[in-house]
Amino acid sequence: MPENKESNPMGKADMGKAEAPKASKPSRPVKSKKQRRWPLVVAGTATVALAVGVIGAGTLFPGLNATAETTPSPHALPVGETLANCQGPTQLLAGSAAGTDPQFSANSSATKSLLNAVVLSNPNGDLPGSVFQALDTKFSSLLTLAKASDSPSTPATALSGSPKARAAVVLGSAVGGESVLRAQPFSDESSTGSASVVVEAGDGDLAGLAAATCQRPANDLWLSGASTSVGRTAVLMVANSSKSPATLTLEMFGNTGPINAPGGKGLVVGPGAVRSVVLSGLAPDQELLSVHVKSAGGAVSAVIQQSVLRGLTPGGVDYLAPVQAPASLATIAGVRVQSPADAAKISSQNSYADAATMLAVTVPGVGDAVVEVKAFGASGQVALPNGGVFTAPAGKVSSLPLAGLPEGSYSLSISADASVTAAVRLVNSTKPGEAVDMAVAPSTGRLGDNHVLTVPQGVRSSLVFTAPEGAATVRLVPVSDKGVLGAPKTVDLKGGSTAVVDPGALLGDGTAAVVVSVSGAPTFGSQLLGKDGTAGIAVLPIPGTSTASHSINIITGY
């Protein structure tokens, strides 16, 4: 399908020093690594098994056998549209705004905010109707990515780069505000697509590279890696693309412990609206901060716009994506580390102590957690400070410095004897005295089949994969800017290692998107972005597949 070159501007945020706890040696051994998860409610498609029984009382309905055996029969559930909420440009707070209804200043004229998107056809080549709408409370139409095929095509082979499979692609469309991608389902399954927003600013207080994968809405989200200490600004941005209002409750954990903020309850986000919260108004002076967003009613997406300003010198900006819900196991791919010598020169400057790569671990429960961290590089496991084992106090966010790692790209495997969340703060720089940028790599779930990701133009992109427990194979299908699916390539992963893939070099310079499928041991991945000649760095989580089963078993007899 021809590239959609239309440039459509898509065009408002709520406001809320102690040292982070140092790593300490464990007082007890790490227990069983059997995974435990906190309850999580996610909006979107899912496989549902439901049995409904009706019992008729014999006294009311004489002759009916209330104990007769019945057989559930499958009934198809309606397949819903696929949603992905997208960020707008980074936004600079006006003055010293704090609270739940802040005002923003105009962006720097040097700021570029570009949207990239792709939707896949079914194996027969039929494209789903796909549009972008503004989250301006009116769902104003912005861009048509694909019109639904007029009539079904004849069957073709499975989606794997076959001649009939195709895609609709848009690259570098200018955005002026938050939006939602709506992709209609096929007759019996959800459609598959994804989008991302990349923001570049060469000057101003928000100078740096920020990027966000457009999110599928959910009712329970965790975000980590934020900071509200002096010079650090964290703005939580919650978007509601549903037709129902969403009522938010914010649960927060800092490096000093749990934070009781009455202003974080009962926050309403209307249909098609975005609400922003300046977190320093709810949780001030936290060097490390994690936020649990719970939504009653409409499902939402959430990011934290994190920025740093050291005096008059910008220290980077990023969109913090949700991390994996609290669990006893977590994996983070895409941890980029500078050389120890360069990192030391940067962090030794005045007010630059936090300009260092570090792991943030949050323990939301009531008991301390003994945490074991393993780092995997291209050649296997690499030693960490203190052996990578430390005790994380209950109700707090703790940190583990990673500056001692040799220069390169890594993945982290985190295990604990209590449920935790995890994220890594990345820092990149050119030289002392020059600009510094920051990013946060979240923990993510394992990869499966048919994850589709965009490859933004104008920035350097790398795909990072790891399989901590054993060998795996990653299958990559390129998608051109014309929507043509190319021949697949495979990447063999050794257990306990990290592989970095340049999509342009492996799949071709014209690659606009990639379809990722994995077989073998549990595999995790992310996308690292950079900008040549600058300190710019950002992380894009790989979107989850949206294909699912939609049937339930219903007992209709007595």
Short account of what is shown:
With 558 residues, the chain is mostly beta strands. It is built from 2 helices and 37 strands. Strands 21, 22, 23, 24, 25, 26, 27 and 28 form an 8-stranded antiparallel sheet that branches. Strands 12, 14, 15, 16 and 18 form a 5-stranded antiparallel sheet that branches. Strands 2-9-6-7 form a 4-stranded antiparallel sheet, with no helix packed on it.
Structural class: mainly beta
Q: Using only CA atoms, what is the Rg? A: 24 Å
User: Quaternary state, please?
Assistant: single chain
How many structural domains? 1
Q: What is the number of helical segments per DSSP (H or I, 4+ residues)?
A: 2
Low-confidence stretches: 1-27, 29-67, 545-553
Integer average pLDDT: 85
For the secondary structure, the number of strands is 37
Organism: Arthrobacter glacialis
Transmembrane segments: 38-61
Region (Disordered): 1-37
Pfam family, one: DUF5719
Provide structural commentary.
The chain is mostly beta strands and about 550 residues long. The protein has one domain. It has 2 helices and 37 strands. Strands 21, 22, 23, 24, 25, 26, 27 and 28 form an 8-stranded antiparallel sheet that branches. It is globular and about 65 Å long.
Give the helix/strand layout.
Layout: E1 73-76, E2 82-86, E3 92-93, E4 104-105, E5 111-120, E6 130-134, E7 141-146, E8 167-174, E9 179-183, E10 192-201, E11 208-213, E12 220-226, E13 232-240, E14 246-254, E15 257-259, E16 265-269, E17 273-278, E18 289-297, E19 301-310, E20 313-320, E21 327-337, H1 340-347, E22 358-362, E23 369-377, E24 380-382, E25 389-392, E26 397-401, E27 408-429, E28 436-442, E29 451-454, E30 460-466, E31 472-480, E32 489-493, E33 498-501, H2 503-507, E34 511-520, E35 524-530, E36 537-541, E37 551-554
Antiparallel strand pairs: 1-37, 2-9, 3-4, 5-8, 5-10, 6-7, 6-9, 10-11, 12-18, 13-17, 13-19, 14-15, 14-16, 14-18, 19-20, 21-27, 22-26, 22-27, 23-24, 23-25, 23-27, 27-28, 29-34, 30-33, 30-35, 31-32, 31-34, 35-36
